[in-house]
C-alpha cells in the first residue's frame, strides 16, 4: 500500500547478491537476504490507466491515482486513499473509509466536528475549556471545583496526618512530663522512706501497698465525680474497684503543708499495722500526687450521720439495740487507738460522719486525716486547732493541747445525737442556730429527759437506759478534760447497758458463751461517772476507793465483746 515491498533472496552467498538502480539507490537496493523495494501497479501513467475503465486498479471511491517515479525514470502508477480517508483503494468500491480526525488527541483546541474526508474546529464557549480526557468542552467552574476538591482533600489529609503526628508527640511529651512529675511527688512525699518502713515491718508489708496513680485512676474512672461517695473537711472520698475486683474507698485529701509529709508517712506506717474489726482498714496509699491518696476498705452502708439525719424513714431502721451496739463498738475502737496500739493515736475528728457502717451495720471508725500520733509516755500534744464545729472539745480549742479526753468530748456529742436525733449544729423550732452539746446540757438541767430525747428512743428504750446513756454523755461533755471518763470507761459503761438490755429481753448472753452476773454481785463496782451537777450515776454508787478496782469477772464481762 505504501509503495514498498519486501523481497527475500535465497542465495548461498550474500556477497554475490548485488542489485543496483543507478542514481536512485533509495528505490531499488538489495544487499542481504531481505530488501524493501518500491512497486507500481502497471507501467502506465495515471491518465493512461484511468482511460482503461476495466483495467484501472483504483476501484474504491475516494481513491486516487499516484504516479511512481524516480528522478530520471518513471515506474508506473499505484492507488492511494484520498486525504481524510483510509483503507483499501483496490478492488473494493468502499474500501477507503472516512477517518474521524476528532479521535486523535490534540486535533482541536476546542470542539472538534468530523466531516466526510475532513473536520473542522470551533472554540469552546465562554467559561469553558476543552477537556482532552473527556474530548469535550467543560465548565471551568466545574473543573475548578473538581480541582479545588482534589486540592482540598489532599490538603485535608495532609493536615490530619500532621495533626495526628503532633497529637501523638504532644501526648508522649505530656506522658513524659506526668511521669517526671509523679516521680517528683513520690520523692517529695517521702516514698523511699515509706518503702523502707514497710519493708522493715513484716506485718505492714503484708497488709500495706504503695499504689501507683494509674492504678487508682483506672479504679475510679479517672476520679469521675459520679464516683464521689463522701466529702469532708479534709477532702473527698471516691469509690473505686481495683484490678483484683476489691471495692475500695480512696481519700483524696486537700493540700497539706510540706512539713507534715514526714508525719503523714509515719501515720501511714502505724495505721497500716492497726487490725481492729471496728476500725476501717488502711490498704495503702499513693504518693505520686501533690497530696498523698489513702486507700481504705469500702464500707457500703455509709455513715451513722447519714442514717440518723437523712430522713425519718432511714433512721427508723435503727433499733435501740443497734444504737447501743454501734456506740459500744465505736467506743471500743477509740479505746484501742488511745491505749492498745503500739503508739497512742488521738483521732481529733470523732463525729457520726466518721463512724461508718458495713453490710452488717458493724461500726467502723474512719478518717484519720486529722489524727496525731503520740508517744506512749506523753499525755498530750500541742497542735494547730483542727476538728469539726459541734464536736470540737472547748478545752482543746482554747489551749491547743490535744489529749485523749478531746476524743471523749467528741464522742459525747455522738451519744447525744443518738439520744436526740439532732445534728450537732441545728436550727431550733424558734429559728435559732444552736450547738447540740450546749442545748443538751442546758435542757438536762431544766427539763426531764423524756421531753428532750427523740420519740423513737422513748418508744424503744427504758427510762433507766435513757438515764444511763444521758448521764454518760453528760460526763463526756465536761468542760474540763480531767473530769471526763476515759474511752475505756465509756466503752465498759455502754457494754454494761447493752448487756443488761439483752438480759432483760432474754437475748443471748448464753449464745455469746458468757455467764451472767451472779445475783450477789453489786452494780456498784462499775466506773464512777459523776455528773457536773453532783448527781451520781445510779449504777455507780461505789465508794471512791473502788472507782478503779474491778474483779476479774467484771473485767472479762466488760471486755469480752471487744475484738482485739
TrEMBL record:
ATP binds at residue 252. It holds the Pfam family Pkinase. GO terms for cellular component: plasma membrane. Keywords: ATP-binding, Disulfide bond, Kinase, Membrane, Nucleotide-binding, Serine/threonine-protein kinase, Signal, Transferase, Transmembrane, Transmembrane helix. GO terms for molecular function: ATP binding; calcium ion binding; protein serine/threonine kinase activity. Residues 223-497 form the Protein kinase domain. It is found in: Membrane. It is a single-pass type I membrane protein. Signal peptide: none annotated. InterPro entries: EGF-like_Ca-bd_dom, Growth_fac_rcpt_cys_sf, Kinase-like_dom_sf, Prot_kinase_dom, Protein_kinase_ATP_BS, Ser/Thr_kinase_AS, WAK-like. The keyword ATP-binding applies. SMART domains: EGF_CA, S_TKc. The chain crosses the membrane at residues 145-170. One of its GO terms (biological process) is cell surface receptor signaling pathway. This is Predicted protein. It comes from Hordeum vulgare subsp. vulgare (Domesticated barley).
